[in-house]
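To: structure subgroup
Subject: Chain for Friday's discussion

All,

I'm putting the inputs and outputs inline so they're searchable in the archive.
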Amino acid sequence: MLEQAIKDVECTLQCLATERSLLFLHNQHNQSIFAMDNSEDIMQLDDKIRDLERCVDRIELLLSEVRSNFTLQPIKDDGERDVLSWNRKLQHINRGEGSCTFSTGPTLFVEAYVYRRLKGCFAQSTFWKEHDVFFERKVN
């Protein structure tokens, strides 16, 4: 699941990089005022690419935690309203069962937790807050 999410995000990154390259080439061959407007588009794309790269870094960190069977960490405050309730539930589970890891925690909770952390990888971003890595699978 996380490996596929990383692949999907990297594909989006590749598309943005291609779009940026096309805009750059357009600017190189077109010295009009319109081309100057495109330079702002390129800077915006650069910002989007860097922001998406940070999302990929967060997903890779989550994947590493899952593979290493780390203790579940509190959800970082990403501006979503459910952060406090997730962290309270995690705290409650840890008190009752000891430190909860990806393999020892309640299965349904851990699965939902992973999805929530994956959502948080994008919710912490500037340009990708609403990105849904599963959108293609939902519509097909």
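Points worth raising on Friday:
Confidence is low (pLDDT under 50) at residues 31-36.
The domain at 2-139 is CATH 1.20.930.60 (Transcription Elongation Factor S-II; Chain A).

D.
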